Amino acid sequence: MRYAANLSILFPDLALLDRPAAAARAGFTAVESWWPWPSATPSATEVDGFVAAIEAAGVELIALNVFAGDMPAGDRGIVSWAGREPEFAAAVRTCVDIGKRLGTRMFNALYGNRDLDPGVAISNLRHAATVAAEIGATILLEPVSAAPGYPLRTAADVVAVLDAVDADNVALLADLYHLSVNGDDVPTVIDVHFSRIAHVQIADSPGRHEPGTGTLDLSTWLRTLEGRGYAGYVAAEYVPTGAGFDWREWL
Question: What's the CATH fold of domain 2-249?
Answer without folding.
Answer: TIM Barrel (3.20.20)
